[in-house]
Amino acid sequence: MNSGQRSWFIAGLIIAFFVVLFFYFYWTGQMVGKSYTGRFLPLSGQEKEISASLRGHVFLLAGEIGERNIWLPKKLAAAAAYIEKTWQEQNFMVQRQEYDARGVKSANLIIEIPGNSHAGEIVIVGAHYDSVLGSPGANDNGTGVASLLEISRLLSGTNNARTIRLVAFTNEEPPFFLGRDMGSRVYASRLRQQEEDIVGMLSLETMGFYSEAPHSQEYPFPFSFFYPDSANFIGFVANLRSRHLMRLSLAAFRRTTRFPSEGTAAPGWITGIGWSDHWSFWREGYRAIMITDTAFFRYEHYHTRQDTPEKIDYDRLARVTIGLAEVVKELANTEKLR
Q1: Could you say which DSSP state residue 240 is in?
Q2: Distances (CA, A) of 304 to 17, 143, 234
Q3: How far apart (Å, rounded) are the C-alpha atoms in residues 266 and 28?
Q4: Per the structure, how many domains does the chain have?
């Protein structure tokens, strides 16, 4: 093979690579309905109510309580107490899974909406309530917890085939991140030991920042070739094994919700793909996805002291939260979840 033939061969490989990538990303994210485009309608009465509630949750967690982690155990406990009180006010019985993490008593908080015909099959929705050292954690992850608390309120009293379980996890951030004392890993390990039938898990992670500005969204290679450059969407992220769960969830969201959305299923080793509590469920062989605004790929205040409540778009987060409640209901009732 001479130099000219070699150049054409390499060019052909590059073209083939991008063609394969194009069809892969089209298959994983675009063949489940279309992302919403166009102007938003004015908020409905329900959306206004949810927006106000989300604002209250985030300002309490990231404003009044502020930084909450094992270095500030009283504040971590205060956040847990607020979540527990909110769920009790919604008439849920709250279970606590307590464990010791570096000498600090830590607790995952769990509520459940029992299923009917397939009660043994469980759909989990979770979010971590701790914040990283040095940050009040409004977006990461006050928004995920706020959405979790409003999803539980929206789902309270519903009748579903499968059981819905909502969990507020502790200790997701360093030094526990991707370690054995990460709250979600402690919880997922117990589920596997007890042989519980978890048919899908949704991790709510850093969900409240949006921008219509061009080039406001970044990605790890090669996602920028296939996804929009404006940070105006909510993302559904899965590993390859969980792609069916992602596609069902994204399809349900797009059918019910007028809000931009994108989805992908990619190898878990790609930067950011496994960076939240869904990773713990992957470790135990469960299918799980992350719902996220993509965090540091668009939010410059990620893991800083400037991650404060006034930077969150509560109206958009309200639309997303209501849409996710519809997703959870569909997952709890659809025939072909696996």
Answers
A1: G
A2: 38, 15, 22
A3: 9
A4: 1
25 in a structural domain: no
For residue 338, what pLDDT is reported?
75
Give the phi and the psi of residue 31 in degrees, each rounded to 5.
-95, 25
Q: Which residue has the tokens 């062989």?
A: 285
Residue 186 belongs to some domain of the structure: yes
Q: Residue 17 domain-assigned?
A: no
- Segment 174-178 shows an average pLDDT of 96
Instruction: Provide the pLDDT confidence category of residue 226 given band limits of 50, 70 and 90.
Output: confident
Whole-number Å distance between alpha carbons of 179 and 99: 14
CA atoms within 13 A on the CB side of 250: 32
pTM of the model: 0.92
State whether residue 95 is helix, strand or coil. strand
Q: How many helices (H) and strands (E) does the chain have?
A: 8, 8
Q: Give the three-state DSSP class for 180.
A: coil
18 is a domain residue: no
Contact 98, 107 (CB under 8 A): yes
Residue 20 pLDDT: 47
Domain, as residue range, for 154: 43-333
Give 43's contacts (C-beta < 8 A, 6+ positions apart). 51, 315, 318
The CATH number of the domain holding residue 170 is 3.40.630.10
Which residue type is seen at 228? P
For residue 18, pLDDT beyond 80: no
**Each residue of 248-305: pLDDT tens digit?**
999 999 999 999 999 999 998 898 999 999 999 999 999 999 999 999 999 999 999 9
Q: Is 288 exposed, middle or buried (0-12, 13-18, 19+ CB in 10 A)?
A: buried
Residues in Cβ contact with 243 at an 8 Å cutoff, skipping those fewer than 6 apart? 28, 265
